Amino acid sequence: MVQVEEVRALEPIGSPGCHDALMATVAERTPGYILDASAGRGILTKFLLEQGRQVQATDIDPGNFWIKNVPIAQVNLNE
User: Fold this and answer.
1) Does residue 26 surpass a pLDDT of 90?
2) pLDDT in tens, 37-60
3) Which residues pair with 33 in a beta bridge?
4) How many CB atoms lie within 10 A of CB 24?
5) pTM for this prediction
6) C-alpha angle with apex 50: 49 to 51, nearest 5 degrees?
7) What's residue 73's pLDDT?
């Protein structure tokens, strides 16, 4: 399992309950490779790694990603 270290405490960004619903759904599935597009601060990436998934994190602004030692690719989904 990948060791992840937070730069600071993570709080979800988005609609209330959306991260919880997604995490519950993912926890029920077979582990696999997941693209976290628009990873933001990295709360979902961290959860997925802790669940044993392989994750590729991407965001338009990788500077917002708060997880140390986890690579993130800069991707503009509008292009």
Assistant:
1) no
2) 989 889 889 888 888 889 999 999
3) 54
4) 9
5) 0.73
6) 90
7) 97
Nearest alpha-carbon partner for 7 in 38, 42, 51, 37:
42
d(CA 75, CA 48): 20
d(CA 25, CA 11): 19
Residue type at position 51:
Q
For residues 75 and 78, give the distance between their C-alpha atoms in angstroms, rounded to a whole number: 9
Q: How far apart, in whole angstroms, are the C-alpha atoms of residue 15 and residue 32?
A: 26
Q: Return the DSSP state at 62.
A: G
Neighbours of 60 (CB within 10 A): 15
Residue 39 · residue 59 · CB < 8 Å: yes
